[in-house]
UniProtKB/TrEMBL annotation:
It comes from the Bacteria. This is Nitrile hydratase beta subunit domain-containing protein. Residues 4-95 form the Nitrile hydratase beta subunit domain. InterPro entries: CN_hydtase_beta_dom_C, Elect_transpt_acc-like_dom_sf.
Amino acid sequence: MLSAGTPVRVRLDWPETRGRCHIRTPHYVRGRPGEIVRHLGDFPNPEDLAFARPAKPVALYHVRFRQADLWPAADPWPHPAGDEILIELYEHWLEAA
């Protein structure tokens, strides 16, 4: 299990280009650095459940991303440059940063 404060990177992967799949990981965070905020529990993998496949429990986390890491060229107005976004991501999408 990953601890709060652990730096991570979202896998830069596009499984939807390799065939039928169900992905809950937003495109704009793939390959980007973030930080674990909290473990939310372990849940059956929705990427398997979507196709009625057996689904092992997978850890789900709140991961915090800095605005500048997701959209470095974006004009920060009307949002302060220190804004963050919090996303729920499954552990198999996360790598050590």
